[in-house]
Design brief:
285 residues; four-stranded mixed sheet
Length: 285
């Protein structure tokens, strides 16, 4: 009853290995796993296809806890339905943590020359951008004025019963519980905003202020799109709103709280913000 998406049939005879992605629809961390799976799903040389089991915030645990035998409650989580192990992860058929999922599914996005630097950069982004963008976004949306918008965006791909429950529960304690669980308050939101601006400055600098196409590598060494670009674009998406993810963001930017609307405009004007849009335009869908 808490599953919004049933298992897809194989899209082609070559797609023989099914993966279930348990997600929170608009989560930036879940977008990392979704993007990795889409790359495999669309690759004719890969036998992988997937189905997404999406949930609104606070509901994913109904799927992740039983899937991991009580070991983990957060999303994203991937489950290999054929019971074969997630390579290099202790023979288990369940894998969580967006960075681990990306490394497992798309090792080719870690070219040897830059692999260590990319992994370190991904850890930096997870702490300095993933968590802060989530905190800042929820701080502005977890207010009564924006409950309806948050409900619509958070339940875009979830089951009907979860959509109804999330909408009903949000003003009746769930919003307060989410703020407490994620330490979302004005002080943390202010600190998050400062950190986000610093991250965008650092990434803009890595891109040589718009002169480079990708965060690592160059045309000379043949390294282009890597896990660093995918991770940065995914984690920044809630702030930039790439049109390719229109299901998770308002059609009309005027629906956003003014601080998020102003920040979107500010960050889109930076080389790092333009990089997010370019990565979605050229490497997504």
């Amino acid at each position: 009853v808490f599953s919004g998406t049933k298992k897809r049939p194989p899209p082609s005879p070559t797609k023989s290995r099914h993966i279930r992605l348990i997600s929170i629809g608009p989560s930036n961390y879940c977008e990392i796993a979704r993007w990795a799976l889409d790359l495999l799903d669309e690759d004719p040389d890969s036998n992988v296809y997937y189905s997404e089991d999406a949930h609104p915030p606070a509901f994913a645990a109904f799927a992740t806890v039983p899937a991991s035998d009580g070991e983990w409650s957060a999303a994203p989580m991937i489950v290999f339905d054929d019971q074969s192990p997630a390579d290099e992860h202790e023979g288990r058929n369940v894998l969580y943590d967006s960075a681990a999922i990306l490394k497992c599914l798309c090792p080719g996005l870690y070219p040897p020359k830059y692999a260590q630097d990319i992994m370190q950069f991904d850890v930096y982004l997870g702490k300095q951008l993933g968590a802060t963008s989530r905190c800042l976004t929820y701080h502005h949306l977890l207010t009564p004025e924006y409950f309806a918008l948050l409900s619509k965006l958070s339940t875009a791909h979830s089951s009907k019963i979860e959509a109804v429950l999330f909408e009903k529960m949000l003003p009746n304690g769930l919003a307060r519980g989410m703020r407490k669980a994620m330490t979302v308050n004005e002080e943390m939101a202010d600190a998050s905003l400062a950190t986000i601006r610093e991250v965008f400055y650092q990434v803009s600098d890595k891109l040589d202020w718009g002169k480079r196409d990708y965060i690592f590598g160059s045309k000379e060494d043949g390294v282009g799109f890597t896990a660093a670009d995918l991770t940065f674009a995914s984690l920044a998406a809630p702030l930039i709103h790439p049109p390719e993810l229109r299901d998770f963001y308002p059609e009309d930017v005027c629906q956003l709280p003014p601080p998020l609307r102003d920040l979107r405009k500010e960050l889109r004007a930076t080389p790092a913000g333009q990089h997010v849009l370019a990565m979605y335009r050229h490497h997504r869908f």
